[in-house]
């Protein structure tokens, strides 16, 4: 956990209790993927039994300044500051196609992006995996707040792997 988050968690997580911080991270992950995919996008979000989080989206477009030479996964990860709050985060983007050069930027189009984060239970002060209890309904509450609500037409399909609960959230 970064020193800034330790010193001022409210700046990052607002009034949410620490037990809800994994759900806020899930909302941030969904929002970042929805931004990459644009209007009408749908993110698949899975709350895994052991406390990990997976998210995927189809049809993403990713841009980076030309000449940086970063792998596409690093470009995506660089926009996700909160991955520092996980023990590990893996990003996969495909199918791999060469990028286009457009106005000084590298542009990758029509990507399927998959992210898996193994969240750090020590950050939340809750035993690993316990933070997803009633995760679908609690995530619905997080996503209904103006701060985390997806844009009109965008959806988050969430599945709690442990319980089988699922929902399509606005």
Structure description:
By secondary structure, the chain is an alpha+beta fold. The protein has one domain (3-169): Histidine kinase-like ATPase, C-terminal domain (Heat Shock Protein 90, 2-Layer Sandwich). It has six helices and seven strands; from the N terminus they run αααββαβββααββ. It has helices spanning 3-7, 9-13, 21-37, 72-78, 121-124, 135-144, and strands spanning 42-47, 52-65, 86-94, 100-102, 105-119, 155-160, 166-169. Strands 1, 2, 3, 4, 5, 6 and 7 form a seven-stranded mixed β-sheet that branches. β1 and β2 form a beta hairpin. α3 (21-37) packs across α6. The protein is globular, with a radius of gyration of 16 Å. The relative contact order is 0.22. The model has no long low-confidence stretch (mean pLDDT 89).
Briefly, what is this?
Helices cover 28% and strands 34% of the residues.
Keywords:
170 residues; alpha+beta; Heat Shock Protein 90; 7-stranded mixed β-sheet; 6 helices
Give the arrangement of secondary structure elements:
Layout (H helix, E strand, L loop, with lengths): L2 H5 L1 H5 L7 H17 L4 E6 L4 E14 L6 H7 L7 E9 L5 E3 L2 E15 L1 H4 L10 H10 L10 E6 L5 E4 L1
Parallel strand pairs: 1-6
Antiparallel strand pairs: 1-2, 2-5, 3-5, 4-5, 6-7
Helix pairs in contact: 3-6
Mean pLDDT: 89
Radius of gyration: 16 Å
Helices and strands: which structural class? alpha+beta
Give me the CATH fold name: Heat Shock Protein 90
Task: Please write the CATH class name.
Answer: Alpha Beta
Share of helical residues: 25-40%
Distance from N terminus to C terminus (CA atoms, Å) equals 30 Å
Question: How would a textbook summarize the main sheet?
Answer: 7 strands, mixed
How many individual domains?
1
CATH architecture designation = 2-Layer Sandwich
| Assigned CATH superfamily | Histidine kinase-like ATPase, C-terminal domain
Determine the number of helices (DSSP H or I, runs of at least 4 residues).
6
Total number of strands: 7
Task: Give the DSSP E fraction (strand runs of 2 or more residues).
Answer: 25-35%
Low-confidence stretches: none
Helix-strand string = HHHEEHEEEHHEE
- Tell me the overall shape: globular
